Every structure is written in structure tokens, then in C-alpha cells.
Amino acid sequence: MTKKTILLALASAFIMWLAWPPHNWLAPLLFIGLVPLLIAINNIKTNSEKKTGKKIFLTAGLCFLVWNTASIYWVFNSINAVNTGFVGTIISLLVSLIPYGLGALLMTFAVWMYYRLSTYTSKPVAYAGLIVFYISMEYLHQTWDLAFPWMTLGNGFAGMHQIVQWYEVTGAYGGSLWILLSNILAFEAYQKIKNQKQYKLAGIWMLLLLLPIGYSIYQYKNYEEKSIPVNVVTVQPNIDPYEKFGSISANEQLNILTHLSDSIGQANTEYFIWPETAIPNYADEERIRTNPDFLRAQQFLSKYKNGTLITGIESVRFYNDKKTLSAKANPNGGYYDNYNAAVQIENSASVAFYHKSKLVPGVEKMPFPKIFSFLGPVFSKLGGSVSGWGWQEEPGVFYAYSGIGVAPVICYESIWGDWVAGSVKQGAQFIAIITNDGWWGNTSGKDQHLLYAKLRSIETRRYVVRSANTGISGFINQRGDVVQQSKWWTRTALKADINLNDHITFYVKHGDVVAIASSILALLAAGFILLKKWFLK
Fold first, then answer.
1. What are the CA-CA distances from residue 305 to residues 262, 281, 432, 468, 537 (Å)?
2. Which pLDDT does position 223 carry in this prediction?
3. 343 forms bridges with which residues in the sheet?
4. Is the whole model's pTM more than 0.90, yes or no?
5. Are 300 and 292 a contacting pair, CB within 8 Å?
């Protein structure tokens, strides 16, 4: 690669990083962030005679690796916090390269496939290929064992949600499509202006930006929530996650949670939301009604006649036979599954569990276990289960005695738009996100996680209530506005009257059609490349 090529790749990486949350008001830079990379690729295609594909792969790889690493640098913080010393730091750095590099590799592969397609087809078809290859790689990174869809392009507008109100139709992948198409048109407009002094394409590019933005702002200003108020309290106990499972007893943690809840709870409070793993002792789900922590929580709730508690809990189920893929042999006979779960507790005998399904690769579920089993000791210190948590196959809904439906969403799951939409489709009227973001420290990770929740509210037109143990708790309305939030590393509780909603958006009804359609087209395009290469030379 030439010096100019490297600088162009780094320029794209820098612009994309500037545009990425939590740099909220710089989000419009996403519309041009990939233009320097496209210029570099065009220069390589024009001037290179040998190893063109390799040069393009390395150029795109440099851009995406730097951008991804700069945007999710906090992954290293979370791993290094439990691996002390020089050796621990080296191990943490090496393990961090997996999330830093894997997403970048998929993005790079999409660009390389675009180059291969461009050698056999016209420019418009090749550009269409670039879009579907890229989005299909994003979708793959959402669906396979190493899933980490944090850097999906459409997430980049989380800090400027006013211009993507139409996510209620397309979801975040509609944003990916918009950004890719914008960068392609901006690059072509730049070429036309530079070489031919023609400005028509620049006008088309401006329309591509202004029409969706104008429509979105109109939606934002005119959207009205139906007044169906429910008083909700969300609690942030601010318990150090590295001390949570040993240094502080479960009883003491319950004292903190109940005290904070009582400090602002009122007679008409209908929901209390406690964070992920708020009840840290393993609870046998079959015997939950005799569990002392459960009884303590229910005793607290008895003061609130119409109250319902949704809290994180670590739970276990025992089986005589191996009923699930994640079930493990019990030394005392039979099998068991342990879960990172949510439980709904009411002033009745009714109890409902939800088992976290989108598990963090490595920490909660070992991806491709035969390949990555050697990483088990590194991840075991992060509060997960090396042998893997159990999970459920479908989204869940908690229905209270009052008939209100709530989507329980645990931590990492909140970046899966289609998963959250699945709960809403089943009847959830608001979304309760319970999380524990303290693993990352005071980094942009916690801010990004909060901001991404705004997109879920727009896609589903549901209020989001967020309870974070050591992150940021708060309330997000149906337009995606954060109407109230806590400060980082603060023990507090917040309350608000939120509005329920029964309306089903197009996105909730149909899901990630943009990504699915792109994946189908990408497979056809890949088949075409192979056909031309091997059979139609």
C-alpha cells in the first residue's frame, strides 16, 4: 500500500469514529465517512496491475480495524480488570483482538466481494453488491455463535434519533442501507465534480439525505403518545460487579434495593425494576416460593397493593434427562441448567421466569466450544459460566395480574432489534432493560449501550425503562427521547409515569426484512462470482 492509500484508509476510520456514539451531534459524518476509503479503493483499481484484490483487502482491513478498535476500546478494559499484571494485560489484549478484529474482518470481506463482483459487472450492479454484501455481513454478525452486532452501521444514529424515526419501518438495518448508499453517491458525486464539473449527482445525494431527514423530523414533532400512564420505579444499587458475588451478601444487597425502592415508591406504583443479577444467589426455580430471597422481595412488595417487581436473578433448573442443549450433568445425578434470568414477582402466588437468550460470547456462552475452549479460564473471572448459561429459544413477555405485558430484556439483548420486537409482537406494552454495565468502567461502552436502547423504543414505539446496576438507568419515551437518567456510579432510584402502547409497527410485524433480503441477494451475487470465475471464463 502507498502512503496515500494508508492515509485515506485512516481518514475514513477517523471520520467514522468521530461520527460514532457517544459523539452524538457528529453522526451526520456517517454519510461521508467511507468516501476516503472508496477513493483509495478506486485508486488501487485504477493504478494497480498486480494483487489488486489483496491491496483492496488490506486497505479496507486497516480502515475497519482502526475504526472498530477505537469505538469499542472498552472491551479491553472489561477483560483486563480481572487479569492483573503484565502477563494478564498481554492476555487481555490478545483476547480483545477477537471482537476488535472479527467485525472488521467481516466488513473487509464485504468490500473484497464488492471488488470481485465489480470485475464482472457494471458499476451500478457492483455498488448494489457492496450494499448487500456489507449488510449481510452485519446480519451474520448478529446471528452466529460469535455474534456481536454492536457496530452495525444503523446504530450510529442512536445519538441523533430525531432523524431516524422511520426505524419503526426498517429497523437499524435501514440506517445501514442509508449510510452505504449515501457514501456511494457522495463518492460518485465527488468524482463527477472533480473530473467533469457536473453537479447533478451531488443534488441527488442531497435529496437522499434531506428527504428521509425531513420526513423523520416531521414524524418526531407530530408523534403523540396515547395517555395510558403507569407509575414505574427503576433502581440503580451501584454495587461493584467484582464484589457483588462474594464480598457483599445477598441480604445486604436486598436491603439496598428495597430501601431505594421505598424511598420513592408511592401508593400507585405498579412496577419496580431491579437490575441484572440483583438477586445473586442461585435460586431453584421449582422451589422459588420457599426461597428466602424471593420471600424477602415479596415481603417488600406487600406494601404496594398493585405492585409488580421485575428483577434479575441467577436461577437453576434440575432435570432427570438431558432436556436442553445447554444442560450439564449433575454430580448428584440427572442434569441441570443455570440461567442469567429475570423473574416477575407479584402479590400473589404467580411467578414467571425469563432466561437470557442472547448470551455474550466467551463470558456466558463459549462459541464453537471445541475451538475456543482454551479461553475458558480468561472468561471465567467475568461473572459468567465457562460451561455456558442456559437460554430460551423465543422472546418472552411478563404478564402481570393487571394484564400489562412487559418485554424483559437482559443486558446484551438490547442491541437485537428483532429480538426485542419479538416480545412486543407477543403483547409487551413497554420494555424493561435490566443490565450490569459496570464491567466496562467509566468508558463510552455504558453510553453506547444506553443510546442503542433509544433505537429499540423507536422501532417498537414502546417506552423503555432501564435499570442498570452500575451503568446508566433511566426512562426513554416512544420517540426515543431520554426523559430521565441517572449519573454513572451513583446509588439512586428514579420514578416516572410512562405510557403503555398496543400499536404494532411495521418493523415489529415484519422484523429485519432489509437484512434478510440483503443476505439472499448477497448469496446470489456470491454465486454469480463463483460461476463467472470457475465456469464462464
1. 14, 27, 21, 25, 76
2. 97
3. 311, 353
4. yes
5. no
